[in-house]
Here is the input.
Amino acid sequence: MGKEIPAEKSLNLIRGRLCDPSFIFGPLSASSDSNYSKLKFIVSTSITEGCNNSILLLGPRGSGKAAVLDLVVGDLLEQFPDSVSVIRLNGLLHSDDNCAFKEIARQLCMEHHLLFSKMASFDENSHFIIAMLRECGLAHKTIIFVLDEFDMFAQGKQRLLYSLLDAMQSVTSQAVVIGISSRLDADQLLEKRVRSRFSHRKILFLPPSRDELDGLLEHLLSLPADSSFPSGYVSRFNDKIKNITSDRRFKDILKTFFNAHSTVNSFLKFIFCAVSLMNLESGLLSLENFKAALSRMQRQPKLEAVRDCSVLELYLLVCMRRLEVKEQNSYNFISVMKEYKAIHDSFQTSDYYAQNVCIRGFEHLRERQVICYAENRGQSQTGEYRPMKLLISASELHQGMRSHACCPAILLKLLDH
Amino acid sequence: MPTNAAGASLSSYKYFVTTGTVKFESLESAAYEIPRKRKSRSDSAAAVNLMSGNSLSSPKKLKSHRPCFVSNPRISVKEVMEILRDPVNLVVQKLSDCLGSKSNWNPRDEEQMRAVKEALHVSKAPSTIVCREDEHIRIFGFVKGCIDQQKAGSLYICGCPGTGKSLSMEKVVQQVGDWSTQAGLPPVDTLSVNCTSLTKTTDIFSKILGEIKPGKNANTNSSPLQHLQSLFSQKQASSSSRMMLIIADEMDYLITKNRGVLYDLFLLTTLPFSRCILIGVANAIDLADRFLPKLKSLTCKPMVITFRAYSKDQILRILQERLMVLSYVAFQPKALELCARKVAAASGDMRKALCVCRSALEILEMEVRRSAGPESQGPTTDDSVVRMDHMAAALSKTFKSPVVETIQSLPQHQQIIICAATKAFRGSKKDTTVGELNMLYLEICKSWMISPAGITEFTNMCTVLNDQGILKFGQARGDKPKRVSLRVDESDITFALQEIRFFRNCLV
Here is the structure.
């Protein structure tokens, strides 16, 4: 019993760390060249100098744009407690202009403890916003507009973007507009008037380098040497981590992983998966955990479906594939049965089943989404006459059959020729 | 340098000369304001008004009936003529005077940095507008003509974004107000509408009606347009015969399917007792021709004034004007020239030029902060101004698209997908399905002996690339038949992947 408790505690600690963006992006943002410092510099100079600015944060999903922005905003709210207010909009929710103006007015009212009326019209909302911008400008309070999914705001007439960016062209307002987008060409989507008013500052979130990731791994997985853990356990845990990370096989695992995923978020998911597989008896991580996590992240559902098929179902799949190879692109159950019979006749296989058993096999395959009806129209026809098609490719079928537990050799031969 | 003929040039030269001197004077008076970090907005707005008000108040001395934006009562006409005999060197001399007499610039001084950034900010309108004298003269002449003859008229101003249209309109409105008070005419009502703020296009008529008859209850029988039309078709009582200047910004938002609103707006000026001077501002050069062909037959086609994109010299001059208010030199002249040249070649958009300059200033600031340490507080030599390399870095940050960097930092499988797509779309084919792209991908993987990713992961990676704007998905049910096309130029991809031998051979 005494051994389990530190293991669980360490598991909780590491999992908690993995879900805390400030813990993760803290070391990644430490250098003065990082995106965090660049963003902080731009926004804080805008606040202290009272000039307007607009920035775009670009990068693939999961690269930490919103997390770094939250860190920066948190720091600024601490540094300038009374002169910053934040308005957040999301392109998926507020891309309609009316909706967006209403939301901005509502958030402004909440920030400044005013009463918000749901019945206010578009005109009234926009007058209110302009008046508030002017008031805040006079009072030297900066408003930070955070526009998530910026490319969604660039659809339609772009009235919201035009109004916001135009308000920033006048000397009476003091605002910073920060757009977050995963599309690299987000500023090309803007109309030329809006693009002219946008100040073309872009911060690109590139995936971190290998050294940074190694450092991050160490930082995440090392247990602190404090009194809540038995001291021997901590040193054993940390030594085991060091052994694993210096192992060549671990480096291979990481290399395979990074060939397909490069963002910080996917890396964190991978570590989370590995850590969750930790053996609670020993309380230490092992290389097998990481291997298992990698195979979990590289699951191929269709392959698993084929691997779980019965032999009859494999026969049916092979028949369908052969029909396809023979350039017979539309086939139904009856033609598959004909092919099945032809195979049985020419090769004298032992697996020959009656038609109603085969129909059940077909239904199983359809449920697992390995095959499906080719069109949704002919609903009136019975299932046997409707055209069908395969949902997996030949190579997947091949691979699945080879890894099948008891696939008859004749099937592989039939598929190949 | 102004290049037009004698009449216009005289006033423009005068304006240029006197600008410099007035600025210096006002600098000394305004200098004490700069050190205050948080001067309130109302103060600065009042100061600007005061300055321009002073400068506009004394054009009476000059005989020409074209207005001068600023004039210094202390320089007599004779002196002006003398200086004018040597106009070419005037700019250079003034500039070198400035350079010689300026105190030193210390990039570590926050106040100085802030003042420079403020001078270069887009929202700060300079008190005089350079390089648009021609257009000003034409617009003001038109408005004056309408007011003099008490006739209505329409004018259409077009130009690319960032060419100073809205700024010029504000100045013209100010000018008209001042001129009409001096000439003793009744004041001109002004209505400035930004058409993006209208919920419905017909709201513009209610706004105009609101200006003409403020506070009058809306007549529910007729729409505002009909009311206006009836108003302008009857002779007015002389007490209410004030001209009205209507400025419609971003007029292309008023374009509806049947162009009704636009036609009605322009036709308002043709009614016999109309008192509106309509000035429409938009980007399209041929808005009047394309959307309002009927106006030509009714002979009320509006006069068109085009604000051309700024040339390199104009951009340079505007930047220098803005920086002349400061008492120190923050930019190397060659750096400014590089910026002007690049921006003029790209779009001629002034906002972009200002943005690039501020960006270069920030690069200098970060460099100075990073190297802060044992260096003494005293200003150093050329190191502390914005040099060509800062400007070049700022230009590349603004103009370069992030596509190349992103492609270089993608994981290997996604790069292979992009490579496969490039090869597929080399010929005339511009899109293909996900299934076919998968086949190409598997071929490439097989030829390099890399184990390929399964179809699910392949589709996921294609979705990631679609999110980033590198590939484009069409609409389809299911994953396999979805059409895929490339959004990025092939040359960008080849450039990005040229370092890696695999891709270089593949894309050859």
